[in-house]
Design goal:
Elements: E1 15-18, E2 21-22, E3 28-31, E4 37-40, E5 48-56, E6 60-70, H1 96-113, E7 137-143, E8 146-150, E9 157-159, H2 168-179, E10 185-190, H3 203-217, E11 221-227, H4 233-238, E12 242-249, H5 252-259, E13 266-270, H6 273-280, E14 288-292, H7 301-310, E15 314-317, H8 322-332
Parallel strand pairs: 4-6, 11-12, 11-14, 12-13, 14-15
Antiparallel strand pairs: 1-5, 2-3, 3-4, 5-6, 7-8, 7-10, 8-9
Helix pairs in contact: 1-8, 6-7
Length: 338
């Protein structure tokens, strides 16, 4: 089987372009002489550059930065020595305040283009309290004596001695793994915790997220249904606002952990939200809040169908992917207003 990244006609001559914006995922966007947009990693809006086109598809192209002719004042030296090669970080060459502004505009553009929302209410991006040394888990790969992350766009391993975005504990584990000269394979490194299930990778930023969710959940009501509840990260913090709380989670380990700390008015159901959400929505819809925090794939269609059928008064949607969020908002907009 051929690698899809290497399919498509490749232009022979480099082109000089101007970067207009940064796409979701971190690549700069420029317009080529033939009118196609071109994605160029490692660039910043306003920069003029010579780009080598590496792949050309029907509606877009991909290129590699060759020469910068006009350099953005927001360009900085990445703290990580392999940032330009590693596939893990796409923004380290951009000063952090501009990173936040770029991400705000990305969400706004995606909600408009995919969600059909003319003027989406996107607030200023909340900054992480820690710009570096925040990740509480990483997955590294060992191949041919190298241990680290895959290079951008390939399955080749970049040797990584220390990861600047990972916590000191994770970097100690990485150093220990490297010292033991691991065999080829994949290795998950994570900070110790009594619960081994899903956790937000940036716990300080997760506190900011929780504060936002609490603001939207107040003043509470008769029932909170927390679909995709995990071990109860949100439900545990919101349970004081509601007379009853129901969490729904497919992971048996997460449900056991959540139940071990649940007060009498909080119930956790083990199973698929697509199958269990309807039975959980038994209270007055006007006094019901539903919180969904799905994986990157977004909400399954049966969950959307149930929400549109039962129409709880308030729906809080926590998303890790703006595109699937926008898709689902468009479907829900027949009954809900953003």
């Amino acid at each position: 089987m051929s690698d899809r990244r290497h399919q498509g006609k490749v232009a022979a001559e480099p082109q000089r372009v101007t970067i207009s914006k940064v796409a979701f995922g971190g690549a700069g966007i420029a317009t080529l002489s033939n009118g196609k947009i071109c994605f160029v990693p490692g660039t910043i809006p306003g920069e003029a550059a010579t780009v080598q086109i590496t792949h050309e598809k029907k509606s877009y192209a991909e290129g590699e930065l060759q020469t910068l002719h006009e350099v953005s004042p927001h360009r900085i030296k990445p703290p990580c020595p392999v940032a330009a090669l590693c596939g893990g970080c796409q923004y380290q060459h951009i000063a952090y305040p501009l990173q936040l502004s770029i991400k705000q505009e990305q969400v706004r553009e995606i909600l408009t283009r995919i969600g059909g929302i003319p003027n989406p209410p996107v607030d200023t991006t909340a900054a992480s309290p820690l710009e570096f040394a925040y990740r509480n888990r990483i997955t590294v790969h060992s191949r041919a004596g190298k241990t680290g992350f895959f290079a951008r766009g390939t399955r080749n391993v970049i040797d990584v001695k220390e990861c600047p975005i990972s916590s000191p504990d994770i970097n100690r584990q990485l150093a220990g793994l490297r010292a033991n000269k691991p065999s080829d394979g994949e290795y998950a490194l994570r900070e110790s915790s009594e619960f081994r299930g899903f956790r937000q990778v940036n716990e300080e930023a997760a506190k900011i997220l929780l504060h936002v969710v609490e603001e939207f959940a107040a003043p509470g009501g008769d029932l909170l249904v927390d679909a995709f509840s995990g071990a109860g990260f949100f439900a545990k913090h919101l349970q004081g606002l509601f007379k009853n709380v129901i969490g729904i989670e497919w992971s048996a380990d997460a449900v056991r952990h959540a139940r071990s700390e649940a007060p009498a008015h909080v119930t956790y159901l083990h199973g698929d939200a697509s199958l269990l959400l309807a039975s959980a929505l038994t209270s007055d819809p006007a006094a019901t809040t539903v919180l969904v925090d799905p994986p990157a794939e977004g909400l399954p269609q049966p969950v959307i169908d149930t929400l549109l059928d039962r129409r709880p008064a308030r729906l809080l949607y926590v998303s890790c992917d703006p595109a699937t969020l926008a898709r689902d908002i468009k479907k829900l907009s027949t009954s809900y207003e953003l």
